[in-house]
Amino acid sequence: MIPRYSRPDMVAIWAPETKFRIWFEIEAHACDAQADLGVIPRENAEAVWTADGVAFDVSRIDEIEAVTKHDVIAFLTHLAEIVGADEARFVHQGMTSSDVLDTTFNIQLTRAADILITDLEALLAALKRRALEHKDTVRIGRSHGIHAEPTTMGLTFARFYAEMDRNLQRMKIARQEIATGAISGAVGTFANIDPAVEAHVCDKLGLIPEPISTQVIPRDRHAAFFATLGVIASSVENLATEIRHMQRTEVLEAEEFFSAGQKGSSAMPHKRNPVLTENLTGLARLVRSMALPAMENVALWHERDISHSSVERNIGPDATVTLDFALARLTNVVEKLVVYPEHMMRNMNQYKGLVMSQRVLLALTQKGASREAAYAMVQRNAMKVWEEGRDFQTELAADPEVTAILSQDEIAEKFDLGYHTKHVDTIFARVFGED
Amino acid sequence: MIPRYSRPDMVAIWAPETKFRIWFEIEAHACDAQADLGVIPRENAEAVWTADGVAFDVSRIDEIEAVTKHDVIAFLTHLAEIVGADEARFVHQGMTSSDVLDTTFNIQLTRAADILITDLEALLAALKRRALEHKDTVRIGRSHGIHAEPTTMGLTFARFYAEMDRNLQRMKIARQEIATGAISGAVGTFANIDPAVEAHVCDKLGLIPEPISTQVIPRDRHAAFFATLGVIASSVENLATEIRHMQRTEVLEAEEFFSAGQKGSSAMPHKRNPVLTENLTGLARLVRSMALPAMENVALWHERDISHSSVERNIGPDATVTLDFALARLTNVVEKLVVYPEHMMRNMNQYKGLVMSQRVLLALTQKGASREAAYAMVQRNAMKVWEEGRDFQTELAADPEVTAILSQDEIAEKFDLGYHTKHVDTIFARVFGED
Amino acid sequence: MIPRYSRPDMVAIWAPETKFRIWFEIEAHACDAQADLGVIPRENAEAVWTADGVAFDVSRIDEIEAVTKHDVIAFLTHLAEIVGADEARFVHQGMTSSDVLDTTFNIQLTRAADILITDLEALLAALKRRALEHKDTVRIGRSHGIHAEPTTMGLTFARFYAEMDRNLQRMKIARQEIATGAISGAVGTFANIDPAVEAHVCDKLGLIPEPISTQVIPRDRHAAFFATLGVIASSVENLATEIRHMQRTEVLEAEEFFSAGQKGSSAMPHKRNPVLTENLTGLARLVRSMALPAMENVALWHERDISHSSVERNIGPDATVTLDFALARLTNVVEKLVVYPEHMMRNMNQYKGLVMSQRVLLALTQKGASREAAYAMVQRNAMKVWEEGRDFQTELAADPEVTAILSQDEIAEKFDLGYHTKHVDTIFARVFGED
Amino acid sequence: MIPRYSRPDMVAIWAPETKFRIWFEIEAHACDAQADLGVIPRENAEAVWTADGVAFDVSRIDEIEAVTKHDVIAFLTHLAEIVGADEARFVHQGMTSSDVLDTTFNIQLTRAADILITDLEALLAALKRRALEHKDTVRIGRSHGIHAEPTTMGLTFARFYAEMDRNLQRMKIARQEIATGAISGAVGTFANIDPAVEAHVCDKLGLIPEPISTQVIPRDRHAAFFATLGVIASSVENLATEIRHMQRTEVLEAEEFFSAGQKGSSAMPHKRNPVLTENLTGLARLVRSMALPAMENVALWHERDISHSSVERNIGPDATVTLDFALARLTNVVEKLVVYPEHMMRNMNQYKGLVMSQRVLLALTQKGASREAAYAMVQRNAMKVWEEGRDFQTELAADPEVTAILSQDEIAEKFDLGYHTKHVDTIFARVFGED
C-alpha cells in the first residue's frame, strides 16, 4: 500500500484510530454482556462507555507497547487510564487477545468488502452505460490477435459487465464468509467466558458468531477472501489489457482520456500512452500475488500460531487498498474512454472482406460443396486478399468454381454486417435483463 | 498428475476417450438442434447418432491431427469416417472449435467437482464420527506450540469438520460457476448459429448457457474454480499439519495407521513416520500453486488467445486428480487415525497444573486483586512449576498472598477439568446441528 | 508434463529405468568404497557389478513396493534377486534411503540442466543469426504499445539474445549449485558410513559432496534451481509476447512459420494465428508457478520430513520437460520467423513523420527555444498529424514560429533514419563481442 | 512495508529524498559527459552542480507532479527553480525518463543488496559462534518429526550456516546482476545521446552499462533479484521452523530470549511463545510471494510498457525492507537463543535406547545375520521399548537370538554416543574451513 495507489476511505479502515475504536467497541459490548450474565458489576460495564467518543492516543498506546511488547495489553492499559483503573478492572475478563484481534480484523475486512462492493457496482454502472452507448458500434472481433468476424463494441463492454457482475457476486460471498466474530477464549472452549458474550458482541457489530474457533478464527475464510480479491484483480487486468490493445498506434480504436494539462512523455509530446491501464495491469499482479501467502496461512499449528499475523498486517491493507484504487481507476477509465468507431471500421476493412470468409465457407457447404472443396475455394481467394491486397468479394465473384455454386446476389449477401449483429439484442437481454 | 497420486475415476474424466465422447455428444446434440431449426436436414442429424456407442479410435485421431495440426478437425474427420463423409457434412456447422473445447472442459471440471464434492462428504463423515468418538477426550490446547488450556480431541475433529464443510460449500459454488456451456461461434455473436442450438446442447448436458461468451467461455470462472481448489488444498495441509504434530515422538497423541507389512525405514525399524500427512502437505503446495497460472489465464487478448490452453491441459487434470487423491488419502488417515488419550493426559500434566494459570488469574481478579497484582502472584508461582517442576496447585496453596484471597477449596476448584469442557456440547450443536 | 509438450531426451531422464540405473550406480560405487575401507568384503562389492548391464524389471520392483511400501527396499530386494541374496547382503550398508534418493534427484536435475543449457545455446545461435540478418531492418520502436522512435529488428533479436545469454549464465550457476551428492546416513552424521564413501560415489558420478547434509540434501539448492527455471520461462514469455504483437493483423511485422498442410482454424481459413507463441506464454506461466512450491519445500522439519517429495515428483519432471519443450519450440519459431520489412516501414509511416517529434523538440531547444516553447511548437504540429493525417515535416516547414528557429534543411535533417541507427554497430559489439 | 517490520537504513534507501538525490546525480553527471562531448556548454553542466547539497523540496515536487502528472518532469522543473531556468535548459537532454528511473531503481536495489549482504554476514557470524559453542551438545536427530539418531546442536547451527552462506553467494550474484545502468534514450538506440554519457554516469555511480536496453533495463534482472530474495526468505523460514519446533512445550530444547518486562500472553502468564520465529515464518511467506509478480514483469510489450512500475514501487521497498528486518531479527534470535542441553538429553532418552536400533541392526548383519532376520530381531525388541517403556539395551541383552550373535560387550558398545559424533570435526571443517 503506497499513497500513490490509495484512496482515503479504504485507508481509513486500516488506520490505528479505527482499529482502537473497534477494539473499544468489542470490549465495551463484551462488558455489557458480562454484566447481563451477572459475571461483572453493571457499573463497571457502564463505566467503560465513558470512553465512548474519546479519541484514543495512538502514540501513548505505542509507548506502552514498547514496554509490554503486547498490543492488546497496551491498549487496555491506556483504556484504564481513561476510565479509571478500578472501573476498568473487569474489561477483557475471560477473553484472549485474539478474541479482539481476530474479530477486529474480520470487521475491517467486512468494511473493506463493502467498499469493494460499491466499487464494483460503480464499475458495472459505467460498463452498462458504455455498453448501451456502443451496442451497435461494429468492430472486428479478434482471436489470437487476428481478425476473425465482426462484433460490436457494446458486446465488449457487455462481456466485461458480465464478468464484473460475477465478481460482484463473488465479493458478496466473500464478505459473508468473512463477517464472523469470535469471543471464545484462549483455545476456543468458552471455558472462561459464556458464549452469550460472543453472541452479544457479534450482534452489535453485525457479525455472525464463528461456529467453532480455536484461539483464532479459522484462516480458510481469509484464504477464500484474498483468493477472491485475486480473481477480481485478474479481471481488472483482463479489461485493462483490452484497452491497452485498443490504444496501440496501429489499432487506435479507443484511448484513455487525456486531460489538457497532462504530459505524455518528456521526449515525445505526441504520445498518448495507456498508462492507467498499464498501471492496472501491474496492480493486478500485486493483488493476485497476495492470494498465495493467504493460503499458506491456513495451516496454523494446533490451536494457533502467529505466523499469519505478519502476513495479514501487510496484505490486509495492501490487497484491499490496492484493489479499491484499481477498481476506481478502472471505472474512471471506462467512463471516460474515448472510442473511435471510424478507426474500428478502418481496421475491419484492412484486408478487404476477408473477415467474411467463414460465411462464404458455410454458404458453399450448404449449397452442396464438400467441406474440403469449400475450404479450398475460400482459401485460395483469401490468400489473394491477404497477400495482394485484393477485395475478397470481387475475387469470389470472379472465381468460376465459386460462382458455379453461389450467385452474385448470394455472394453479396455474405458481406452484410447486419448478419453479425442480429443477436446482439438477445445477448444484451441475457446480460442486462429484459426491459 | 502422476499415477502414484491418482485415483481411477478422476483420471478417467481426463482420458482422451472421455473427451472424444463429450465432443461427440456436443456435436450430435447440436445437429439435432440445427435440424429442429430446419438449418440442416433431419436425416443428417440422425446419421450422426450412428456413432453413438462406437469407441473412437484415439490413435487414428492422433494420426490425423499430426497432419492437420488441429485436434477438432482431426476428430471431425474421424467421425466422418464412421458415419460417412456425406452424412457428416453438416456436423460442426456454424460452430467454432472452442465451442466444443470449452464446453467440454467445463463438463470435465463439473464432473471433477462432483467427485470432489463426494470426497469432501466422505471426509466430513469421517471427521464427524471421530469427533463424536472423542468428544470428551481431553487434551491440552496449544497456541504457538505451547500449552495453553485444556480442550478435547473431539473439538479438534469438529473444527476441521466445520472447515471442510465450508470447503464443501465453496466447492458447490465453484461447481455451479463452472457448469456453463457456449455454442456461440467464432467471436461469440451467434452469427452463424442460432442461440437455440446452445440452449439445446446445454440442456442435454446439464449446463447453463454462458450469458455472453467470445470465442471462449470467460476464464474468471476457471480462476475462481482453481482458487477454490487451492483453498481446499490449504485446509488439507491444515489437518495434515495437526496430525504430523500429534505424531511427533515427544507428543505422540495420535499416529497414522501402520499396517502390519509396512516398513517404516530401511534403517530404523522402530520408526513410524507420518508419511501420509507429510505427503499431503506437499500435495497441498502443488494444488495451491496452480491457482496462480489460472488467474493469469483470465486476461486473454481480445476475444481470445490460446495461452490459457497449455496451462489448462496441465492444471485441469493435475489439480483435480491431485486434490481427489489428497482428500481420499486424508479421509483414510482420519478414519484410521490411532488416538492415544493416555498420552494426551501425560502431556497435559507435563508442567503440573500450569495450564490452569489463567483460571487462577481470573479468580484472583474477581475476588478483588488488581490485574497487575494478580498477574504477579500467578507469574511467580508459575515460574516455580516451569523451572523447578513443582506442582502449581501446591505452590498456590502455600502462597500467603494468594491464600489471603482464595480459600483452599476455591484454589482446588480451579483445577477441575470439567470447567473447560462444559461448553463442548454447545459447540458440537453449532457445528453438527442439534439432534 | 504431458506428451504434447515433451521431448524424448528430457523425458528419458525421468523414466523409472533411468532412476533405477542411477540407484544401482550409487549402490555399486558405495560398495566399492566400503570394500576399499575394509568395511565389507571385496567379493561382495564386485558381485554387485554383475547387475551392470542388466535391465531392471520395473514392474517387479513395483510389485515388491506394493507390499513393502518402500521404494528403495523394493529396489534392493530386486537387486538381491539378480546378484544373489548372499552376495548382496552388504549393499546399502550404513546408508539411508535418502542418500540414494537425493543424490539421484540431483543427478537427474544436473542432466536436465545440461539439456537446458544446450537448448539455450541453440536459441542463442538462432537469435544471433536473425539479429545479424536484420541488423539494419528498420522498424518503429514502441513504448506502451505506442510508436516512439525508430529502431531495428536486429536490435530486437539482439536484446533477446542478451537476455537469454544471461539466462544461460543463470542456468550454469543453477547446474553447479545442484550438482551435489550426499551419502551421510540417517541424520547426516556419517555415524554408520565413512565420508570416504560419499567422496568416492560423488567423484564417480560427477558430483561435489554436500558439505553438510541432514537426512537430505538441503532444499534451498532446489528452490534456487526452480526459481531459475521460472526466470527463464518468464524470458520465454517475453520473446513470445513480442512475436504475438508483431503478428497482430494490424501490425503484421512478422509471422510464425505456417506449414503447407497446416489448418489455421476450422472456420476461418485465412487466419494465421500465432499459436506457438501463445502456447509458450501458457507454458511460461506453468513453469513459473512451480518456483513457489519449490520455495515452500525449503523449510523441512528438523533433519527432514518428506513433504518435499510429492512436490518434487511432480515439478522435477514437469518443470524441466516443459521448459525444454518451450525452449526448443521457441528456437524453432525464431529460426523460421517470417519477417516483413515492408510492413515495418508501412507501420512506421502510419502517422507521417510523427515519430521524429523528439528530434525536432531537441533541435528547437538546442537552437535556443525554451523547453516549454519548443514543446508547444512540436505539440501543435504533432496534433495535426495525429488528428488530421497530415505530414509532420510539411507542417513544421509551414509553421513560422518553427522556421524562425530552424531552416528547411535543418528540419529535413531531422527526418533522416540513419540518425537512429548510427549506434547499432556499437550495441551489437556490446552484445555479441567485437569481431 | 510497515514500520513494525522495518529498519531505518533500508527504509532510507526508498525515501523520496534519496530518490531525488540519485536523480540529481544522474542528471548532473550526464551533463558533465555531454559537456565533455561538446554537446552542451560546459557552464550549463557546471551550473547544475550548484544544486549539490541542496535538499530537494519533496512537497514542491509533488505539487508540480499533481499538474504535470509526470514525476521526472516535476523534478526537472523543481531543479530548474534551484539552478535557474536558463542554466538548467540542457539538463536531461537526449534522455528519456526511464534512463533516470531505471538507473535509479537499480542503484536502490544495489544499495539494498549491500545491506542484505551485511545482514547475512552478521547472521553467519552468529550461527558460527553458536555452532562452535554447541559443537558437542548432543541431541536427537529427527526425521519426519520422529527420533532417528543422535546428532549435535552444533551441526544444526552449522547446517544453517552452510545454507545461509549459499544465500550470501546468491545475494552477491544478484547484486552484481542488478548493478547496471542505462542512458540510452527513448527506445535504447542512443539516437539522441552518445553512449559515452551512459559510460560516464555508470562509472560515477558504480554501475556497469546495460549492454542493450530498450527504453528500460530488461526485467529478467529484477526477476532474478526478487527470486533470490524469495529463496533467502525461505531459508529464514527453515531456521525459524527449527526454533519453533525446539520451543514446543513437549520438546523445549531451546527458547527465544525472553526479556524481563515482556508479557507473553494477557491470559497465561507462564507462556513463552516463539513469537519472533513465528513472525519470521509469516515474513518469509510475504517476501517469497513477491517473486511471482517480479517474474510476470519480465514480459513487457515491445520496447517497454509501464505495468512493471506499480509492482516495483511496492515490492522494491517491501521485499528488501522486510527481508532486512527478518534477517536482523533472525540474527538476534540466534545470538540470544537459550539452549537447554539437559532437555535434549531427556528427550533423546524418552524411549530408552531406541534410537540406537540401526546400529544394532547393522551389527547383526555384519556378524552374519540376514538382513530380514536382523530386521525382525531389532523390530521385536524395539516394539517392547516403544509400547511398554522398556530399555532397549536390556531387552536385547535378554534376547537369546540376539545374544547368539552379539556378545554383551558388543551390545553395550552400540549404545556409545561417541560413535555418532566422531565425524563432527570433519563436517565442521567442511563447513567452516580448517583452522
From TrEMBL, chains A, B, C, D:
GO terms for cellular component: cytosol. It comes from the Bacteria. The keyword Lyase applies. InterPro entries: AdenyloSucc_lyase_C, Fumarase/histidase_N, Fumarate_lyase_CS, Fumarate_lyase_fam, Fumarate_lyase_N, L-Aspartase-like, Pur_lyase. Its EC number is 4.3.2.2. Keywords: Lyase, Purine biosynthesis. Belongs to the lyase 1 family. Adenylosuccinate lyase subfamily. This is Adenylosuccinate lyase. The lineage of its organism: Bacteria, Pseudomonadati, Pseudomonadota, Alphaproteobacteria, Rhodobacterales. The gene is purB.
